[in-house]
Amino acid sequence: MATSELAVSYAALILADEQIDITADKLNTLLKAASVEVEPIWTSLFAKALEGKDVKDLLLNVGSGGGAAVASGATPAAGGAAAEEAKEEEKEEEKEESDEDMGFGLFD
């Protein structure tokens, strides 16, 4: 990660920790106070990406597998459809040729 991206990331984390809305102006102010020069595009990109999001919640739920929670709350009809889709995906995976079928092996 480039130094400018890292600096803006830290500034966004500081603002989130203080429960201040993350805006490009506030990021620029914080970076200027730290004597870090960053192209303005980075602060606006980070501000737009994090607009309306709870950064602390994002950090706490990294890799939590939120998809499983959605699937468990599905209706029985939707669960049947999901099971059919899973079976179709398994069939597609079986159809794919392996390297050995194509004459390429690990020890060739």
TrEMBL record:
One of its GO terms (biological process) is cytoplasmic translation. The keyword NADP does not apply. Residues 69-83 have a biased composition (Low complexity). Keywords: Ribonucleoprotein, Ribosomal protein. GO terms for molecular function: protein kinase activator activity; ribonucleoprotein complex binding; structural constituent of ribosome. Residues 90-102 have a biased composition (Acidic residues). It comes from the Eukaryota. It holds the Pfam family Ribosomal_60s. GO terms for cellular component: cytosolic large ribosomal subunit. Residues 68-108 are annotated as: Disordered. PANTHER family: 60S ACIDIC RIBOSOMAL PROTEIN P1, LARGE RIBOSOMAL SUBUNIT PROTEIN P1. Plays an important role in the elongation step of protein synthesis. Belongs to the eukaryotic ribosomal protein P1/P2 family. P1 and P2 exist as dimers at the large ribosomal subunit. This is Large ribosomal subunit protein P1. It comes from Arthrobotrys conoides. The gene is ALTA12.
